[in-house]
Design brief:
By secondary structure, the protein is an alpha+beta fold. The chain has two domains: about 150 residues, 2-Layer Sandwich (D-amino Acid Aminotransferase, Chain A, domain 1), CATH 3.30.470.20; about 80 residues, no CATH class. The chain is built from seven helices and twelve strands. The longest helix has 25 residues. The chain starts with 7 loop residues before the first helix and ends in a 5-residue tail after the last helix. This is YheC/YheD family protein. Keywords: ATP-binding, Nucleotide-binding. It holds the Pfam family ATPgrasp_YheCD.
Amino acid sequence: MVKFDHNKMRKTRILLGDPHVRAAIPKTVILSASSLKQMLSTYDTVYVKPNVGALGVGVMRVRKLSANKYEWRYKLQRKHVSSITRLMSLIHSYKKSGSYLVQRGIDLMKYRGRRFDLRVVTQRRNSHDAWRVTGVLARVAAPGRIVTNGSQGASIHPYPQVFGANMSAEQTGRLKGSIDNLALRIARRYTLSYAKCIELGLDVAVDNKRRIWLLEVNTRPQIKPFTRLNNLSMYRTIMAYRGKNKGH
């Protein structure tokens, strides 16, 4: 089995070499009291998440409400504190071991009043094959949740359904084309460092201005959410690629 780096910050740095991809990556820094303060002075909302982790576990959200008031969210919990020092103390009381990241919060597009993002799967049959986008679905956050992971109650929908609630079919088609192009650029850039990589799961978001953002790169993506779609064609395509990739 090919081993890949699960360090999110290192994966991000690999992708920054492509200017087109770099423009889609929200500002991300290693968590410290000073970096958190600086990020919150620039962005009203940030996400604090483990540098190594998956399934949305350990992700917290912080919003700056006023000069000396911050809102902290984790799972279904919500607390207010009046200083960065108290905010860091709160974060440390819930964080696991290892380093954490602070990432700019994106004002995600919504479906029926709930935030959503996309899971985009890119695959190739071998390390010499061309990359292809084999699956795209939407993950709509459960009520009151700050993350869109299916393991934390998100509902799974076909992407045309959630985009269709926000735009025309023609606009949906153009947006999907842009997402596919970005996904393929990300895959090609990533394999400059990991030539044997043949599958990536990308967490992609679209904001209210229809700008596309890359939230995370997963080298061992969960594909179970694709089994929750009524149309299983994407799931079958992904599995067919995996069937040819016995060494993955």
